[in-house]
Write a structure and sequence with these properties.
Layout lengths: L2 E5 L4 H13 L5 E5 L3 H6 L5 H6 L2 E4 L2 E4 H11 L6 H6 L2 H23 L2
Parallel strand pairs: 1-2
Antiparallel strand pairs: 1-3, 3-4
Helix pairs in contact: 4-6
Length: about 120
Amino acid sequence: MKAVLVYDGGCGVCAFAASLVRALDWRQRIRPVRLQDAESARILAAIDEAARWDSFHFIADGKTASRGDGLLDVLGVLPMGAGIPRLAAGMPALRGASERVYSLLHAYRDRLQCAV
């Protein structure tokens, strides 16, 4: 089963990031779904509405990850990043760095166009 990347399709930064993931996913293991699509409500039923719009969400192997943890999990599914989640599990500093990277991207997203 394909992993699912749920993102804000109305956000240029988010759509660019989703396009980048699609370009790097030459095995086509990740299926993008826009938050604006009805399917996203079903996929993210366990997450409240405000939290759905606060971050992208990555669902793989029955696990939903968002923010910095989601970045690590997305990288882990891409062909050249398979070992990253295992590496991060043993390195709290790497997990912290992924959260800082996500926070920086999130701040730019809000500043540019996507504050909800």
